[in-house]
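Please review the protein record below. Tell me whether the encoded fold seems credible here:
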Amino acid sequence: MSQNRKPVDPKLLEILVCPVTKGPLSYDEAAQELISEQARLAFPIRDGIPIMLADEARQLDDAP
């Protein structure tokens, strides 16, 4: 079964903020994640829908 990646609405990306810090997010299209540098979290995007739950987020590594 191939992974079906739906595009994220650019308008939605403009208004979303990190649920932890209320800070800005950056979009990693390749990984299908929204990145919060302040919280060091990566929120997954599934079927074009950002999952903005801290429990679902991946902790970012400190290494580059």
Q: What stands out?
A: The first strand starts at residue 26 and ends at 28. The radius of gyration is 12 Å.
